[in-house]
Amino acid sequence: MVDLDLSPPEGLNIPLWRSLLLNLIDRWSPERLPPLQLTSKPAYVGMLPGDLLRLPWYRTIFANLSDVISPETLPPLELESMPVDVGELLGDDLSHGWWDSLLRSLRDRLNPENLPPLEVTSQPVAGFGAEETLQILDWSDLISTPTVFLKDAPRESASVPHLVQSAPLPEPAPLNSELLATRMQLTRDLGRTRFRRRIWIGLAAAEAVFLIVAMFKFV
Questions:
Q1: pLDDT at 199
Q2: Of 8, 33, 118, 165, which cross-links 12 as Cys (Cβ 3.0–4.6 Å)?
Q3: Sequence-ordered list of residues with C-beta below 8 angstroms from that of 121, at least 6 positions apart, any chain
Q4: Does the structure show a pLDDT above 70 at 185?
């Protein structure tokens, strides 16, 4: 087993001045390393994506035309493994028309496919009579314990409600003359405010209409 070291590298914890000094030394006096010796042969991978993107537009047009007129002849593909039948792919299934799906649905409805019986190795769980739909199971079906019936709580005897005498209505308080005068003054002020608001809205609308008519008239 290989011991994994997930701690940060040592160069991450060095001070700032030391990192700056090491960078300056590497810049002015780089380390002399021996030439790199390759023991393997490089594999041809074609043109790199960076070099392909840097090509001018006319070269790419000529390359596309040459691929259309005289494409490269490649040797036939040799398959060493046996293909596995996975049925119809999802993309091909979705590309069919709606009538094809309708016909298959009708065929499956009228003449369904006969499948072999399913071999179940586990015992089915009792669903208190559920045959077609899945329902929540009772705890009594899942837990094998003796059934205990608890007694019902005693009910309180119903008592005859007593007639509650209605309390006498309080006498209306006498009207205060100052409060009544204040209320009338407030109502009068609100009426005047609404009247002034309507006047200002009418003046603003008339001014807007005048400006629009003048703009179209003098233009």
A1: 92
A2: 8
A3: none
A4: yes
